[in-house]
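Lab channel / #folding
Pinned by the channel admin:
"Please post every new chain as: sequence first, then the structure tokens as a reply. Keep commentary short and put observations after the output so the thread stays searchable."

First post following the new format, from NK:
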Amino acid sequence: MVSADYTAVGQNPTLARFIDKRHFSIQKLVVKPGSFLPPLDLKTSAFAIDGLAEDQVWWIADNIVAKESQKGTIPARGDILTIAILEARLNIEPDTEIHPRHVNICGWPEEKEQRKAIDLELCAAAILRLR
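Reply from TO:
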């Protein structure tokens, strides 16, 4: 489900999934498997970034994501079009409590192997962005 407010960002908005060093390959310049896998609540955190300059996107990484996760500097992100998420039969739900552009990728299957297969699709569709 994509809310009316969320789709106002664009016809096929881009989401950023902020990732740590174990979830990307600097040699291959790819987002590695596991980057989109959800935690136990089956909600993968991401941010709508259309209309933002690069420094604004990284501001979210530093001031929202890093503080929430307490993992320090975020070195990379995987940018993905919402159509790739919807084609994987997942949902995008706004979760503005954290930040006005925060969303959760939901609708993950209960079966772990199915989640891994979807994660692989999303990683292949994502574009790696390094600082």
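NK: Confidence is low (pLDDT under 50) at residues 1-9.
TO: also worth noting, Residues 54-69 form the longest helix (16 residues).
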